[in-house]
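Customer escalation, tier 2.

The customer says the design service returned an amino acid string that "doesn't look like it belongs to this structure." They asked us to rerun it and document both sides in this ticket. The original structure tokens are below, unchanged.
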């Protein structure tokens, strides 16, 4: 991820090195190159426009600095603006004052929700929490079993409907799971929900019903960074249909161009909380905008 973008930006900024002073024409040419690099990386157009406008305005208005040469100054500005579109400060998970904290996962099928449930459970356990996973994806064959497997690997319990009772009602499962969490002293409940291959109304309604039943402290929109431009329209559909308080980017280990990662925060207004970068439960961490910006700038 980001390799091409990173190479492009590095070479654009490299061209500025050695210049004693930057003219407005130099800045315009640099901004144009950065714009092309971002568009090629599939960053959403409104985000690119905003980014370029900021870079130009700040670079042209920059005071002559004793400490930094002009090229370094532009690099600093680009870095700061990248951190800005990625969300600025790291946003921590919102934990309920009165446990259990309820975290609901929403997103398309294949986005990585079930895997994420296991990753989150392990991460929470390492922080001293006692999480309970809840299987509310009753649509996809084997989704319940898959959640039980990741739960076992993470060493946490899974609440699932009893087998043999038909498909079951995910809203009822979610409700009963919260009661169970209270009884068994789980302080965090992670609710896995069903995802379809594309956005559809029934999926949204079901997720909204589960949300209304469990009043989540966090609703995390899980998005596969490999889906590129589609990430933005999917995020908007989930924002309008279910609402979410944070984003989790998955598959950052893939070779996608990175546009989704750069667009989703700015377009939805919600922060990226976590990033997943592999299939193993350990391939997961809190999202740090500054580290991601440094990775992009090389
Ligand atoms: P769900 O349908 O949203 O529950 O998605 P799953 O959790 O079943 O994940 C779909 C596929 O993506 C599985 O094969 C996972 O192993 C894989 N996967 C999930 N997260 C990542 C990740 O961060 N990187 C990679 N490479 N694969 C992932």
């Amino acid at each position: 991820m980001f390799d091409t973008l990173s190479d492009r930006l590095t070479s654009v900024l490299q061209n500025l090195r050695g210049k004693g002073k930057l003219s407005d024409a130099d800045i315009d040419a640099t901004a144009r190159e950065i714009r092309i690099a971002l568009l090629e990386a599939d960053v959403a157009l409104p985000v690119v426009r905003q980014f370029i406008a900021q870079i130009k305005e700040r670079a042209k208005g920059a005071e002559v600095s004793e400490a930094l040469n002009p090229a370094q100054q532009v690099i600093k500005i680009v870095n700061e603006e990248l951190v800005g579109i990625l969300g600025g400060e790291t946003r921590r998970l919102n934990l309920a004052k009165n446990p259990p904290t309820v975290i609901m996962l929403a997103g398309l099928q294949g986005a990585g929700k079930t895997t994420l449930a296991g990753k989150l459970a392990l991460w929470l356990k390492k922080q001293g929490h006692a999480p309970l996973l809840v299987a509310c994806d009753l649509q996809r064959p084997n989704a319940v079993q898959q959640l039980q497997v990741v739960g076992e690997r993470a060493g946490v319990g899974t609440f699932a409907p009893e087998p043999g009772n038909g498909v079951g009602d995910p809203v009822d499962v979610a409700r009963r799971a919260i009661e169970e969490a209270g009884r068994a002293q789980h302080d965090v409940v992670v609710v896995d929900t069903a995802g379809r291959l594309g956005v559809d109304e029934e999926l949204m309604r079901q997720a909204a019903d589960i949300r209304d039943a469990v009043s989540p402290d966090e609703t995390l929109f899980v998005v596969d960074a490999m889906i590129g431009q589609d990430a933005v329209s999917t995020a908007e559909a989930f924002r309008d249909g279910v609402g979410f308080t944070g984003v989790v980017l998955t598959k950052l280990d893939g070779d996608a161009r990175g546009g989704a990662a750069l667009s989703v925060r700015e377009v939805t207004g919600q922060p990226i909380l976590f990033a997943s970068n592999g299939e193993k439960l350990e391939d997961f961490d809190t999202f740090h905008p500054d580290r991601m910006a440094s990775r992009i700038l090389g």
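Tier 2 assessment: The sequence is consistent with the input. The two ends are 12 Å apart (CA to CA). The first strand starts at residue 101 and ends at 106. Sent an explanation to the customer and offered a walkthrough call.
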